[in-house]
TrEMBL record:
Domain ATPase F1/V1/A1 complex alpha/beta subunit nucleotide-binding: 129-347
ATPase F1/V1/A1 complex alpha/beta subunit N-terminal domain boundaries: 7-72
Assembly, per entry: Has multiple subunits with at least A(3), B(3), C, D, E, F, H, I and proteolipid K(x).
Source organism: Methanocorpusculum vombati
UniProt name for this protein: A-type ATP synthase subunit B
Keyword set, alphabetical order: ATP synthesis, Cell membrane, Hydrogen ion transport, Ion transport, Membrane, Transport
Length: 458
């Protein structure tokens, strides 16, 4: 194997190598230090005169005397069913003290695009045990549904709760979780590992942890390693896999850092112009393939810089994915967990996975009524601040109380509270008692009211 010692410059995580043979984009590279130490790299850009190599580890010690070997293959992930229950680094190496993974296969981490004709329509309901998701923004198998959060909000706690509670009710099919954390602190990593081990969720999970002090370049491969693992479990072993990616903002910051090192012309707010395409190459790996048993469902989590939903990261994510779950600082300040605001939240595939034979026949109507009642109550809070509560009509006062009741009974739940979809819908019906039936009949069929309303239920 040829070894080149023609490094002309080292800039951040990048090495610039001159006078090489023709090499391919994303080809793997072995970097040999003068003391014999080996480091991994990948071809980031290639031309006739210059090859840009990104190093997956710290570039300390790299210089003009570094040897560069091109390995002739792209980054491949060793995959096996024995990965379930393992905790790996952001680069795919075991960090749980267990043995190295003995692979059944080694798969290209970039995967392959799913033929649109081969895509199956998402249909099966995934129960997360969280009422604000299951009841009003339902997650469907094969969907990509991101969570939009802000710094300091409990999105990691919500992610862990989803990871340990997610299931397909009534299904005996195998269900697995692939959890990938990017740019987290060592304290957060210890918290994640302790929670997975405490709750026993680790038995059906594969965890990837990329720490904040790990090289930014490694952050760019972590979600692809996770999705390659998920695709193997889903399409070759028949698992239904839920992939949780947190925090995609750290991933995008790594893209911006590498783009700056490459001296690329920046796009919006300094992020690379190709960030939309790059994010799409991750999010579009969720789905169902006709004729295959498994599925890949994604919940990417991102923190919105400055709580700005128009920031490029949430903005582009919203274009690619099928809705969003929005975490509210206001509800968090009230001490409500999980502080999910249902008003700006949306699941575009919700209607495909609910209803008779899937969840319950009253699901859509209950969801619409709760959303409408809460939205009206929140609007009335602004009016009360101006004219006072006593100036409201009796009807308006009932909707104002409904909004408070919605937050305290429907939204608020324990971090270990796993509600079934029936319990979630019944909470809604119990709250409807305080509203006039004439208001309910505007959105709910009379026969459903007589079947499920507490005033008629035996």
């Amino acid at each position: 194997m040829k070894e080149y010692k023609t490094v002309s410059k080292v800039a951040g995580p990048l090495l610039f190598v001159e006078k090489t043979e023709p090499v391919s984009y994303e080809e793997q590279v072995s970097l040999v230090l003068p003391d014999g130490t080996l480091k991994r790299g990948q071809v980031l850009d290639t031309s006739e005169d210059l090859v840009v190599v990104q190093c997956f580890e710290t570039t300390t010690g790299l210089g003009r005397d570094t040897g560069v070997r091109f390995l002739g293959e792209t980054f491949k992930m060793p995959v096996s069913k024995t990965m379930l229950g393992r905790i790996l680094s952001g680069g795919g190496k075991p960090i749980d003290g267990g043995p190295d993974i003995v692979p059944d296969k080694r798969l290209d981490i970039n995967g392959a695009a799913i033929n649109p004709y081969a895509r199956g329509s998402p249909r099966d309901f995934i129960q997360t045990g969280i009422s604000t998701i299951d009841g009003t923004n339902t997650l469907v198998r094969g969907q990509k549904l991101p969570i939009f959060s802000s710094a300091g909000l409990p999105h990691n706690e919500i992610a862990l709760q989803i990871a340990r509670q997610a299931k397909v009710p009534g299904s005996t099919e195998e269900f697995a979780v692939v959890f990938a954390a990017m740019g987290i602190t060592r304290e957060e990593a210890n918290y994640f590992m302790a929670d997975f081990e405490r709750t026993g969720a680790l038995e059906r999970a594969v965890v990837f942890l990329n720490l904040a002090d790990d090289p930014a370049v490694e952050r760019t491969v972590t979600p692809r390693l996770a999705l390659t693992t998920a695709e193997y479990l889903a399409y070759e072993l028949g698992y239904h896999v839920l992939v949780i990616l947190t925090d995609m903002t750290n991933y995008c910051e790594a893209l911006r850092q590498i783009g700056a090192a490459r001296e690329e012309v920046p796009g919006r707010r300094g992020y690379p112009g190709y960030m939309y395409t790059d994010l799409a190459s991750i999010y579009e790996r969720a789905g169902i393939i006709k004729g295959l048993k498994g599925s890949v469902t994604q919940i990417p989590i991102l923190t919105m810089p400055g709580d700005d939903i128009t920031h490029p990261i949430p903005d582009l994510t919203g274009y690619i994915t099928e809705g969003q779950i929005v975490i509210s600082p206001e509800l968090h300040r009230k001490g409500i967990y999980p502080p999910i605001n249902v008003l700006p939240s949306l699941s575009r595939l919700m209607n495909l996975g609910i209803g008779k034979g899937l969840t319950r026949e009253d699901h859509k109507k209950v969801s619409d009524m709760m959303y409408s009642g809460y939205a009206e109550g929140v609007d009335l809070r602004g009016l009360v601040a101006i004219v006072g509560k006593d100036a409201l009509s009796e009807r308006d006062q009932k909707f104002l109380e409904f909004a408070d009741d919605f937050e305290n009974r429907f939204v608020r739940q324990g971090s270990d509270e796993d509600r079934t979809i029936a319990q979630t819908l019944d909470i809604g019906w119990n709250m409807f008692v305080q509203l006039p039936e004439s208001e309910l009949e505007k959105r709910i069929d009379r026969d459903l009211i007589k079947t499920y309303h507490p005033n008629y239920r035996k």
